[in-house]
Write a structure and sequence with these properties.
The protein is an alpha+beta fold and about 150 residues long. The protein has helices at about 40-50, 60-70, 105-115, 125-130; strands spanning about 1-10, 20-25, 30-35, 70-80, 85-95, 95-105, 120. The chain contains 4 helices and 7 strands. Strand 1 (about 1-10) and strand 2 (about 20-25) form a beta hairpin.
């Protein structure tokens, strides 16, 4: 079973090579933080601010290729966590056939934000990373700005 999430916030940490994306459960209180790289963080931030680059970036290019091949991106699924690394899939539809394409979560989320499709996280991954919270709290960085999060 998968749980629908929404993009809650993105933490751009200029002094670090990694940034933090925070997904929040649509119909619940769990918050799902994930470490992403600077390119994906900037692509997501640009899209959220309504800025369109003059030329297609990688995620827009991939969306265009998928469309030209007759498929449509239906959703993004963060499906697994192994050895402190998340695994995701692009869920595509082509002529009624579901196609699942392996992806890094950061790329999948950036693509999902670009084409405005739902993002889901496997219940098993959510249970492992962020047990049910009653306070609806957000993720906090350590005093030195560090995190101990799985990466994409």
């Amino acid at each position: 079973m998968a749980v629908q999430m929404e993009l809650a916030r993105i933490l751009i940490r200029e002094e670090y090579e990694s940034h933090i994306l925070e997904l929040r459960e649509v119909e619940g209180d769990r918050v799902f933080p994930i470490v992403i790289g600077p390119n994906e963080a900037m692509a997501i931030e640009r899209r959220l601010m309504g800025k369109t680059p003059p030329r297609p970036q990688t995620h827009e290019l991939l969306a265009s290729v998928i469309g030209h091949l007759g498929a449509k991106i239906k959703s993004i699924l963060i499906r697994d966590l192994q050895d402190h690394t998340f695994f995701a899939s692009l869920i595509l539809d082509r002529d009624g056939q579901t196609i699942e394409v392996d992806s890094r979560p950061s790329d999948a989320i950036a693509l999902g934000v670009a084409v405005e499709v739902p993002i889901y996280v496997s219940e098993l991954v959510l249970d492992e990373v962020c047990p049910q919270s009653s306070d609806g709290g957000t993720f906090e960085l350590g005093e030195d700005g560090s995190d101990d999060l799985p990466s994409s």
